[in-house]
Amino acid sequence: MKIAITSTGNTPDATMDSRFGRCMYFVIYDTQTGGTEFIPNPNKEALEGAGPASVQLVASKGVEKVISGEFGSKVKAIFDSLKIQLVILNNPNTTIAQIIEKFTAQKN
Amino acid sequence: MKIAIASGKGGTGKTFVATNLFYVAVQDGRHVTLADCDAEEPNVSGFLKGKTIRKKTVSQNLAVIDPEKCVYCGKCRDWCIYNAIICLEEQRKIYVLDDLCHDCGACLVACQAGAISEKERRLGTVTTSVMGSNTVLTEARADVGVYSSVPVIKAALAEAGDPSLLLLDAPPGISCPFIATVAPADFVVLVTEPTPFGLNDLALSVETLEQLEKPFGVVVNRDGLGDNNVYAWLEEKNIPLLMRIPFDKEIARTYSQSRLLAAEDASYKKKFLHLLQKIETLCEK
Questions:
Q1: Which residues of B touch A62 (CB under 8 A)?
Q2: Using CB atoms, which residue from A43, A49, A81 is nearest to B97?
């Protein structure tokens, strides 16, 4: 399964970005291979529609889950219809490595 | 001449200043139109009553994509600069976000499959009323729940046209509805209150107007409330202070009862006329 995580930086030490549509980076984490891909968010400066454009990006990567701090009102229904689960984390200090670790621990 | 009355912070007295300016301009024998462009909460009609002569419905077209005809090429999405279309080629899914659609028609041109049509969506109304022979009131009123009131404001501006004096009661804030209202203005009156909130939002409005290269001046309402920081700030930035209106229970009472201060108090009639003349002088410079 692929998971998208919003990140403030392009390393696993970076903390999660609490915004979805305008985050700095998207991390695409593959739970099967353990591989991570950091993608700079091309929509972070979008005048309008950063959320939907970011849905386009993560959905086209084939993710089944998105982890962020906050999702805007325009994107929730679309994620629902695509059967992509949204996970909201309240602690903005969590690092990408910690989030990935949590998922690996849950699986084993 | 077009004068917009705006503010960063809401509730500082835009409509108070706009309606009183309108009143003194009418009394001075001017041909004047007051356009209420605060389309999300128009309230000029609470103070000034005219005879309605026209009511227009404002609507826009929205793109509708037929998933049966769609070939999921993604062209319409690539052409949409407003990010209103999501197209997932692999999953064969397509979405239009109605709130983001600006009725530009680019997707209709982009689509080679004939999958896109349009439907109409109502956005609000523009009402025109007359008070006597030389005075017109135009009101932009967006429907509840409409994402952007800008098309309604633009329709009201078109309806108001180019009278010899046009007063524009602007919406609060500095986002698109504010920009749409001040865009045609020759001068912008920023109404603020001497509080930290008022000053913070005034600074944002000033920054925006400087980028738009609009001449402007400031009216401080409820003078005596809060602190004096706004005055030092105006001096430092070399921004003209056009008028100070004191924090006065009687003024508040008059306004809360939908009455016009300038119509009841000769000294304020003089002060608002003086404000109008001051603006005109600044415009001529």
A1: 90
A2: A49
Instruction: State the CATH architecture for B67-114.
Output: 2-Layer Sandwich (3.30)
Question: How many H helices and E strands in chain A?
Answer: 3, 5
Closest CA to B63 of B101, B114, B109: B101
Token pair listed for B146 = 């409409």
What residues of chain B lie within 8 A of the CB of A60, using their CB? Answer: 88-90
**Measured between alpha carbons, how far is A40 from A38 in angstroms, rounded to an integer?**
7
CB contact under 8 A, B97 and A74: yes
Q: At what angle do helices A73-81 and A50-60 cross, to 10 degrees?
A: 30
Rg, Å, chain A Cα set: 13
Q: Which residues pair with B180 in a beta bridge?
A: none
The tokens of B107 are what?
């997707």
Give residue-wise pLDDT tens across range A74-107. 899 999 999 999 999 998 899 999 999 987 777 5
- Identify which of B83, B89, B91 has the shortest CB distance to residue A53: B83
Q: Shortest Cα distance from A56 to chain B (angstroms)?
A: 6
A56: which chain B residues are within 8 Å (Cβ-Cβ)? Answer: 77, 83, 86-88
- The secondary element (H helix, E strand) that includes residue B248 is none
pLDDT digits (tens, 9 = 90+) for A46-74: 988 999 999 999 999 999 999 999 999 88
Residues in a beta bridge with A86: A66
A2-107 sits in which CATH class?
alpha beta
The pTM assigned to this predicted structure is 0.83
For A46, other C-beta atoms within 10 Å of its C-beta total 18
**Using the beta-carbon criterion (under 8 Å), do A48 and B93 form an inter-chain contact?**
no
Q: What residue spans define the domains of chain A?
A: 2-107
A·B CB contacts under 8 A: 43
User: Is A24 part of the contact surface with chain B (CB cutoff 8 Å)?
Assistant: no
> Which of the following CATH numbers is that of domain B2-58+123-284: 3.40.1190.20, 3.10.150.10, 3.30.40.10, 3.40.50.300?
3.40.50.300
Which amino acid is located at B157 in the chain? L
Tell me, what's the ipTM?
0.90
